[in-house]
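User: Could you go from structure to sequence for me? I need the amino acid at each position, not a summary. Structure tokens:
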């Protein structure tokens, strides 16, 4: 799928990925693709914990996120910067261990609701023999939960379907920087045009296309299944 910007909105159209025989590697983003969208109930709890207006909190949360996800600042520094941007006096110049633990817990819970419909597609692709990679902007705390308590869905270790998991906090790179896609392609074991990259953020998909990969702009699991139909064949039931 591809979104085309038109008068401030996005219109979505199908973009064929080509014959299944031409594909070797399929690369997934994590947030809002494998996981569901951020649970704003937890976002509101973080804002309330800091004593900040919710819209202002969401702006500060996003504005300071990049270096945290890149892995160049730790959680304590990230939340100090968020609090400073909000003039949140509760935390002062330093964040206590209990306050930091509370914010990290709420943050993780806001993101890690695994989408079973996407996992169904991942499972089907693996059965078809494709090499699967994950490429995600994610901080260290997210990584620890992704590879720990959230790697299972029911009794299934869904992370085990992936041949490689590449995260920004390890690479010290962020999507849509070209270098992070080059690092991914170095492990893809396929030429760029034999790789499909799936992400919910249009600029990240466009950056992958600029590196020669095919791109799918994620909106929901059913649309993803339709876009991947040549690769899935009849291996994945209707979602």
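Assistant: Here is the amino acid at each position, in order:
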């Amino acid at each position: 799928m591809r979104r085309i910007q038109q008068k401030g909105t996005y219109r979505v159209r199908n973009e064929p990925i080509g014959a299944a025989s031409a594909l070797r590697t399929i690369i997934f983003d994590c947030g809002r693709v494998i996981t569901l969208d951020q649970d704003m109930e937890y976002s509101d709890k973080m804002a309330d914990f800091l004593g900040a207006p919710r819209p202002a909190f969401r702006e500060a949360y996003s504005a300071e996120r990049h270096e945290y996800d890149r892995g160049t600042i730790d959680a304590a520094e990230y939340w100090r910067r968020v609090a400073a941007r909000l003039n949140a006096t509760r935390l002062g110049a330093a964040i206590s261990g209990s306050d930091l633990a509370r914010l990290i817990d709420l943050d993780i819970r806001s993101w890690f609701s695994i989408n079973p419909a996407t996992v169904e597609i991942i499972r089907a692709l693996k059965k078809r023999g494709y090499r699967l990679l994950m490429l995600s902007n994610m901080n260290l705390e997210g990584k620890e939960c992704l590879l720990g308590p959230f790697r299972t869905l029911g009794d299934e270790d869904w992370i085990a379907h992936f041949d490689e998991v590449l995260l920004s906090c390890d690479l010290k790179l962020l999507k849509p920087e070209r270098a992070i896609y080059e690092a991914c392609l170095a492990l893809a074991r396929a030429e760029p045009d034999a790789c499909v990259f799936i992400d919910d953020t249009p600029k990240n998909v466009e950056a992958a296309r600029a590196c020669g990969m095919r791109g799918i702009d994620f909106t929901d699991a059913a649309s993803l299944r339709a876009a991947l139909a040549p690769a899935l064949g009849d291996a994945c039931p209707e979602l």
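One structural detail worth keeping in mind: Strands lie at 2-6, 9-13, 25-28, 131-136, 152-153, 156-157, 164-167, 195-199, 214-217.
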